[in-house]
Amino acid sequence: xxxxxxxxxxxxxxxxxxxxxxxxxxxxxxxxxxxxxxxxxxxxxxxxxxxxxxxxxxxxxxxxxxxxxxxxxxxxxxxxxxxxxxxxxxxxxxxxxxxxxxxxxxxxxxxxxxxxxxxxxxxxxxxxxxxxxxx
Length: 135
Description:
Low-confidence stretches: none
Oligomer: single chain
CATH topology: Alpha-Beta Plaits
Structural class: alpha+beta
């Protein structure tokens, strides 16, 4: 299994993901890896950790998720690995429930998201986003 963390999806990944058929609510599993230090393009807030910069994003995106009818189900630090093996452990896990693919797409492309994504980019070294459906 090849695991590659990314900060943004490629155009092909985004088109495939958002081109999926609409099938109602889903939960996104976010496996997050942070930079040691925040890296803002303008050089500001260099004293922050990557996790601190990402938390700025997380606070605002949580409000956006709730406003569209979703919710943050869980957010926490990764503290160990019982089974399996990865080259570099993730730092945190977040589970976000969305009412629909369309709602997620609208949020992802919104001016409000664009206004906060610099915090995500400053703090995030990479992540995996895994879309899940309840049985």
